[in-house]
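Case study 2.
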Amino acid sequence: MKSQKVTNWGNFPEIEASVSSFSSEKELKKLLTSSEEIIARGMGRCYGDSSLCKNIISTLKYNRIIDFNEVEQTVCCESGVTLEDLLSIFVPRGLFLPVTPGTKFVTIGGAIASDVHGKNHHVGGSISNHIISMDIMLSDGSISSCSKNNNSNLFWSTCGGMGLTGIILNACFKLKKIETSYIIQESIKAENLESIMKHFEESKDYTYSVAWIDCLSKGKKLGRSILMRGEHASVRDLEGTKFSNNPLKTGAPAKLDIPLFFPNFSLNTLSVKAFNFLYYNKQLSKKKKFIIDYDKFFYPLDGINNWNRIYGKRGFTQYQFVLPKETSYNGLEKILTEISNSGSCSFLAVLKLFGEQDNLISFPKEGYTLALDFPIKPGVFELLNKLDEIVLENGGRLYLTKDTRMTEETFNKSYERAEIFRRIKHQLDNHNKFQSLQSKRIKI
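Prediction:
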């Protein structure tokens, strides 16, 4: 192992850690048995400290496709394979991911550990819904296979378990048939929070929906938004367009790059207000419909290398919460008002609708989820403590994958099955070998 500085996508916190990699089960077993505490890490796109530990195992060299069944449209791959790898291989074959988060630079192991969700959770659930089986190396070096019906405690505690049950070796899952790699997108402007929630409810039959929300607007404009809903385009939809010659085109490399960290003062209330005004008003009509490639629809920020540097060297934290449907409006109204009045600003604010989910430790529950990016600066954690109170009052919870400061008390109150998860984790890992900064902080 070699020692180096490591941080995840939020560039906060930064730690000194020993990082090792493996390309075989034998190598991994040797690493496990020689370490007292350890955590797996893929692309490091979790925002906080859930894949940080004094000893880190990188899965990126464990990245082979094991099997593909063209008839069943299923694939089995090692945990270090990225979503970008899968898209480049299978989109030309007319297949797509069943669930994808807002970046393709995520390993399949990391996606399962976070039980990632996407713009289609209200109809397709999170990635655990689509996993057929997986193999996991436990802390003693033994390997266990699991699925929803076989060794189910291991399966459900691993999906969303933040790498604390073992090292995911491989997974098999079903892909989604598509005719083209393009999306028919409809963008709808909403003048306030009530309006955007109404549009979400009216869009339940759409496969994909997501909204940009202006978190600095006030009064009658509180929560003004733009809803983006979409469906996979058919070959017929592309007839007569510039896309018809290459209907299964894969994503292009990023065209822009942020070579240096922005000054810490760059993102402030004035600059974010100006951006929000321009973004909301760039669409002149109430509703707009057009064809867009999958990269721009699902991964708009992946087109900018190192976009996390715009927050400066101090880094940023993403604050994502979900509220049950019955309390979503009141809770979101209070949170948006608190943010707007605080003087703190979120450059990115994304609202989505979740469908039903009843997993052991996964983040989603039926209701609305809002993700907010806050630069690390004086006063931001005091604001987030206030938002925690509103989230808890309204029966919500925070996303472990984005978290860097949740308390044990907040975790216990918001994750109803926290104690069950702890019990299963310690049955599987009775020496508590799999640890992270986050797991120590919330006492898992």
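The radius of gyration is 21 Å.
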